[in-house]
Amino acid sequence: MKRVMVRYKVKADRSAENEGYIRKVFEQLKREHPSGVRYASFKLDDGVSFVHIVSIEVADGSNPLRELSAFKEFTARIRDRCEEPPVSMDLNEVGSYRFLGESG
After folding, report:
1. What is the mean pLDDT of the chain?
2. Is residue 6 helix, strand or coil?
3. Residue 25 and residue 31: Cα distance in Å, rounded?
4. Where are the strands (E) in the chain, listed by range?
């Protein structure tokens, strides 16, 4: 299992557009129910910073999100929308409680 966090800041006039792309990704996820992925996206209080957390739970480590047409559309020109480009970080769990669908 691999967990990743991506953060970035969009240009103020592109925030709504960015949210629209994200919503389309979640619409496609709800329609197609791909296995092996857990995904969440958040907009911070400043209205222009976004954080995405993904848990990849497939044996070969491939990212099922990358197969979605809506995700491809979302990422295609992300840098054009950004004031600060995406930074991806692997997350190494120290502990968690009921996070990303785990029960407990």
Report:
1. 93
2. strand
3. 10
4. 2-10, 37-43, 49-56, 82-91
* Token duo for residue 26: 């979640």
The single residue listed with the structure tokens 């957390």 is: 53
Helix (H) or strand (E) holding 32: helix 15-32
Helices (H) and strands (E) in the chain, counts: 3, 4
* φ and ψ of 76, to 5 deg: -55, -45
User: Between vectors from CA 8 to CA 88 and to CA 12, what angle results, nearest 5°?
Assistant: 170
In this prediction, residue 100 carries a pLDDT of: 66
Q: Which two structure tokens, joined as six digits, stand for 51?
A: 């954080």
**Which pLDDT does position 99 carry in this prediction?**
80
**53, 40 contact by CB (below 8 A):** yes
What is the spatial distance between Cα 40 and Cα 35, in angstroms, rounded to a whole number?
A: 15
Return the structure tokens found at 59.
């044996």
Q: What is the CA radius of gyration of the chain?
A: 14
